[in-house]
Write a structure and sequence with these properties.
The complex is a heterodimer of chains A (67) and B (466).
Chain A lengths: L10 H10 L9 H19 L19
Chain B lengths: L9 H9 L5 H15 L6 E4 L1 H16 L11 E5 L27 H8 L3 E6 L11 E2 L3 E2 L1 E2 L2 E5 L5 H8 L5 E6 L5 H7 L2 E4 L19 E6 L2 H11 L30 E4 L9 H14 L4 E2 L4 H19 L1 H6 L6 H10 L4 H21 L5 E5 L12 E4 L2 E4 H4 L5 H4 L5 E5 L10 E6 L4 H13 L11
Helix pairs in contact in B: 2-3, 5-6, 7-15, 9-11, 9-12
The chains are: A mainly alpha (67), B alpha+beta (466).
Chain lengths: 67, 466
Amino acid sequence: MATPDSAPSFEGYVDAIAPLLDLPIAPEHRPGVIANLERTAAIAQLVLEFPLPDELEPAPIFVPKRP
Amino acid sequence: MSLDLCRADAIAIAQAIQSGALSARAVTEFTLELIQKRDAPLNSFTAVFSESALQAAEQVDAAIARGENPGVLTGVPFAVKNLFDIEGVVTLAGSKINADNPPARHDATAIARLQQAGGVLVGTLNMDEYAYGFVTENAHYGPVHNPHDLSRVAGGSSGGSAAAVAGGLVPFTLGTDTNGSIRVPAALCGIFGLKPTYGRISRAGVAFLSTSLDHVGPLARSPRDIAAIFDALQGADPNDPVCANRAVEPCSPQLSQGVDGLRIAIAGGHFQEGGEAEAIAAVEQIAQTLGVTQRVTIPEAHRARAAAYVITASEGGHQHLANLRSRPQDFDPATRDRFLAGALIPNSWYLQAQRFRRWYRARVRELFDTVDIILAPTTPYPATPIGQVSININGEEVLIRPNLGLYTQPLSFIGLPVLSVPVIRPEGALPLGVQLIAAPYQEASVLRVAHWLLEQGAIAPKITAD
């Protein structure tokens, strides 16, 4: 699948990572998976490019015991 | 029956049964017949429990005969999205894969509570596979058809939940909402749908899509019904680690308090872009009735939507990893590649999305220092034809399915309580909804506004039951 020069391709990523996660991607599903990851990457960019203070923690909090 | 059961709300039906005007058995019999005769074109039901429903109805009648009060939902028939556990029933969650599972051993807490309030469970409802959709076009069980135009979608992923109410089959249903899956179908079908505050309603016995974002909530024909159902569902649950440890705060007694003293504003920016003119105008209609002109900006809402998307994809992919490994071909093609891709998302994207969530929650909290209720459209357009993939909005071709969550996602992302209300539309026009948004735990405020708007004639449910 052709992608603009500036957009990263996820073909190599899917082919490398999926086996490491023991998640076989069938040839008939591969193009759809790659396209979805590329779409997700473009969406994730909106979050990734937004500067956050280093000390800002993730939203979920672990509580050792329910009060 | 003199009460039009196809259009009456749950409270009216419960009162008729409590007063002896109708028996619970007669209402359940009527409902079961109705479903049998009228559901085929809608395809909203995936299972009907005639025997157990009639038994439950008889128990309600017996309790009344003994002088007892079965509860605020006495004898009211209801149905639930098929991802709620029901004892003795296999929980499909819209999938073919789950059909191989053993039956559930316990009722979901939400169902148990509604039955304790007198409700009669009549069946389960069609949904997008594993709740991962906004239209309910299910490859295994077929699409749900919008009762107001059978060629169009009912919305999703709680499409069956909305169509069954709007199609006159049952007065209320339960659905779930992760990024809009109660609000979108409620809006497209012209009824009320509440996504409560995150963690307010027990999720015990409910199949997950995204544990960070999944909510349980009701769809119904009136604000007073939503309030009564929400009140019956409230309360801590030791079986749900996320369920808030809050005392029950009944909303029903507060319904008639009106809108005086509530500071209300229209959401600008993101919530006024990317939608058809009539969808945006629906908010102005409600604002005018309320005498509201103030606008507020919910900052970085488009990034909130993006973050919610990443979290959902990542958690959803992980949730289904075992089946994605062993039987990917058995997934709905509409969800499979999305779940597979979600399972591969780099963790830094997911963690950054959760950090952004803390930032965004703080900014929106600040907004609610100065305003009590925010108004926004529910969807960017009304129901689209089943199978249509894209739509032209203001000269731009956009994908229908993901775009249905444009205005709902930034709100569920931080668990705000949101009620979608059906605005009055021109004769023959497809329904549209407006979101009434409040600060966490302020469900009573949105219900007060909705009840007032209903009394003003600015909103009304649309039921098509020929």
